[in-house]
Design goal:
heterodimer, A: 233 residues, mainly alpha, Methane Monooxygenase Hydroxylase, Chain G, domain 1, 6 helices, B: 265 residues, alpha/beta, Rossmann fold, six-stranded mixed β-sheet, four-stranded antiparallel β-sheet, 11 helices, 10 strands, globular, transport (chain B), ATP hydrolysis activity (chain B), ATP-binding (chain B)
Chain lengths: 233, 265
């Protein structure tokens, strides 16, 4: 898109996009570190991850100030208006991603013992890989203003949901096998749920990117595969 | 603010008060308006926006034949109000302008009393049989223009002694007094401060219950606030016309997008 007559307006919009990119990168590392702390039971890394989340909160605050300022001073319209609205919502989602990762990191400290099963660790790593892939793809779609890529991210969320459902079943089995596993498995279940929620935030971001680029909302009928609500324990 | 019927239902959308088709305007050899087609809905506010010189005011002035007063100006094409061709030789432009009132950029009250400003039109059009009927018209016009409370105790004072915002509302009262169906407004707030502007905008919103309003404005925020539909003009062409919320959130034409986001103009 061509430049605004008032060039400082362009600079302000660019600064907001820059903040979103920084938040995105930070959110990704926070998730990676939290899960790697979980899998390796690295308490040091877990504590560092909890601290890292604070920076995301700060960035969210900075973006909010910038957005309010730009609305008050420029009265954005059309594509600019959609960009501003999207930035507000996306930054909120990214901040939530940070919170979810922090929660995983806190559970590492709570568990404070080696994981009972290598297989479980692999399961959590796998869902994390998928969720992080979603996050990365949607952030790329945001930077490139690519509506089609955003739409694909939303489609792919069902895979994250499916993995979560199977992890849920697996954890139930472990708990039934030996009640001494219950504490650890319950923590792991929450971790998996957090990661699955990160996938949902990637989906939210995808919907906002799609709207930002096209001005249209994606249709509502998205396939739902999370069946944990109907599993009989 | 009182409740107002919303004009956004599909069945009401199809109504047309003013239908313009293939309208061309020439100033001498300059082709100022090119092939403009637009349908304007009754009892709603339509905003014309666009950069200076885009033809939005010129087009507005074709709707009550104000361009007739300019010698070198020539209008082609067809403009129908309620299905009647306003450029038909049988149409009396003076009668037309009673039906299609106009409010200008600078408040231009006559150098007369507040009362006489509003009474002028009804008098020349013979709308009142006697003094009490005329009093009635003046009072109700000032009320509709939201000026009654401020003006009722000073009806004999000159209209030019009022504040700018009051003068503009006086001009609106004067336009309403001859019971028009359409009110054209050419940047009615550009000489007013923000509070006076807000009062006029509030008034426009109330008037659309009874009148068809077309407003030319340089302020996109104003167009976004007061209108139900917006038309964007550029270089004499009507580029895009549609529901106001669509024009300002998701314009279809790149030129509209560039203009409303401040990328040229």
């Amino acid at each position: 898109m061509s430049e605004h007559t008032v060039s400082s307006y362009d600079e302000e919009l660019t600064a907001i996009a820059g903040c979103i990119a920084e938040m995105g990168g930070l959110a990704e590392t926070t998730v990676t570190n939290a899960v790697s702390a979980l899998v390796t039971q690295d308490l040091e890394l877990a504590r560092a991850t909890i601290k890292q989340d604070g920076r995301l909160d700060e960035l969210l605050g900075e973006i909010e100030v910038k957005l309010v300022e730009i609305i008050a001073r420029r009265q954005p319209m059309g594509g600019d208006l959609r960009e501003i609205m999207a930035a507000g919502r996306i930054s909120n989602d990214l901040e939530r991603v940070g919170d979810l990762a922090k929660n995983v990191a806190k559970r590492v400290i709570a568990i404070d013992s080696d994981l009972k099963s290598k297989k479980l660790a692999i399961g959590v790593e796998h869902i994390t890989e998928l969720a992080l892939g979603q996050l990365k793809n949607v952030l790329d779609a945001y930077t490139k203003q690519d509506a089609e890529a955003a739409r694909q991210v939303r489609e792919a969320d069902s895979e994250v949901d499916a993995i979560y459902t199977s992890l849920f079943r697996e954890l139930l089995t472990y708990m039934m096998e030996d009640p001494r596993n219950i504490t650890q498995c319950a923590h792991l279940l929450f971790c998996a749920k957090n990661i699955e929620r990160i996938g949902d935030h990637a989906t939210n971001i995808a919907e906002n990117v799609y709207y930002m680029v096209t001005g249209e909302r994606l249709p509502e009928d998205r396939p739902k595969v999370d069946e944990t609500g109907v599993v009989n324990a | 603010m009182k409740e107002m019927p919303k004009i956004d239902k599909a069945d009401e959308m199809s109504e047309t008060k003013i239908a313009a088709s293939k309208v061309q305007v020439y100033y001498g050899t300059t082709h100022a308006i090119k092939d403009v087609d637009i349908n304007i809905q009754p009892r709603s506010v339509t905003a014309f926006i666009g950069p200076s010189g885009c033809g939005k005011s010129t087009f507005l002035r074709t709707i009550n034949r104000m361009n007739d007063t300019i010698d070198i100006c020539r209008v082609e094409g067809e403009i129908l109000i309620d299905g009647e061709d306003i450029y038909d030789p049988k149409v009396d432009p003076v009668q037309l302008r009673a039906k299609v009132g106009m409010v200008f950029q600078k408040p231009n009250p006559f150098p007369k009393s507040i009362y006489d400003n509003v009474a002028y039109g009804p008098r020349i059009h013979g709308l009142a049989k006697n003094k009490s009927e005329l009093d009635e018209i003046v009072a109700s016009s000032l009320q509709k223009a939201g000026l009654w409370e401020e003006a009722k105790d000073r009806l004999d004072e000159p209209g030019t002694g009022m504040s700018g915002g009051q003068q503009q509302r006086l001009c609106i009262a004067r336009a309403i007094a001859v019971n028009p169906e359409v009110i054209l407004m050419d940047e009615p707030c550009s000489a007013l401060d923000p509070i006076a502007t807000a009062k006029v905008e509030e008034l426009i919103d109330e008037l659309r219950e009874n009148f068809t309003i077309v407003i030319v404005t340089h302020s996109m925020q104003q167009a976004a606030r007061v209108s139900q539909r917006t038309a964007f003009f550029h270089l004499g062409i009507l580029v895009e016309e549609g529901p106001t919320q669509d024009i300002f959130t998701n314009p279809q034409d790149k030129r509209t997008q560039d203009y409303i986001t401040g990328r040229f103009g």
